[in-house]
Design a protein that fits this description.
Blueprint (H helix, E strand, L loop, with lengths): L34 E5 L5 H9 L4 E6 L2 H13 L5 E5 L2 H8 L5 E7 L17 H10 E11 L2 H15 L5 E6 L11 H8 L5 E6 L1
Parallel strand pairs: 1-2, 1-4, 2-3, 4-5
Antiparallel strand pairs: 5-7, 6-7
Helix pairs in contact: 4-5
């Protein structure tokens, strides 16, 4: 008896935005709703939870590593989450061009690469210019949620925030080993670092 080979699953394609696209991130969704963006979404674990728990909001996740991001794309499709879109791209590319000023409710940035070596610090995402860009894109009262397992990078966050302008934020909250927003949910790396017993540092800034 010959065994029939199981059909291969369809190849998951990266979502792309046509270079002639003249709209904004909000125009990619079927309806206009408050919008949250996660930079460095990885496998999408955090946004998958947020999108399912909050159908009244839209969620946009970006990451430059497709090998991780495609898991989030597949799960979002399986769950029929029309309020969640993942896109393989660099944050520095998407925000200046597709995110208009004063349009975002929350930015999430969890465990960005700290680029440990001093000669690589210039590659770090969270620099003064980037903080200014995020601030300009937030609505009044909007939130910037940050987390890292690297204490030195948290110190660098603070230095960059001061250089960007410490009067930009109406309120700043910090915690260690206690998530500030959506305390019951963790990203993939957050769960991994928690199991490893690492100290995790959180910061929330309100515009």
């Amino acid at each position: 008896m010959t065994r029939t080979a199981s059909p291969k699953p369809p190849r998951l394609e990266q979502r792309r935005i046509d270079r002639t696209f003249a709209g904004t991130v909000a125009d990619l969704f079927p309806s206009r709703q408050p919008l949250e963006i996660e930079i460095g979404a990885g496998k999408g674990r955090f946004l998958l939870h947020r999108a399912q728990a909050h159908p009244e909001r839209n969620f946009f996740g970006v990451d430059y590593r497709w090998r991780f991001l495609k898991e989030g794309v597949l799960r979002a499709e399986q769950r029929g989450l029309s309020n969640l879109i993942f896109l393989k791209t660099e944050a520095e590319e998407i925000i200046p061009h597709l995110v208009p000023p004063v349009s975002i409710d929350v930015f999430h940035i969890y465990f960005p690469d700290p680029w440990h070596k001093k000669k690589h610090h210039k590659r770090r995402l969270l620099k003064p210019e980037f903080f200014k860009l995020l601030h300009g894109s937030l609505l009044p009262g909007g939130l910037l949620e940050l987390a890292t397992d690297n204490f030195n990078y948290m110190i660098a966050f603070k230095a960059a925030l001061v250089e960007a302008g410490d009067t930009l934020w109406s309120n700043v909250r910090e915690s260690r080993n206690e998530r500030i927003l959506d305390a019951g949910v963790q990203t993939h790396f957050e769960a991994k670092y928690t199991r490893a017993g690492r100290d995790l540092y959180y910061m929330e800034l309100r515009k």
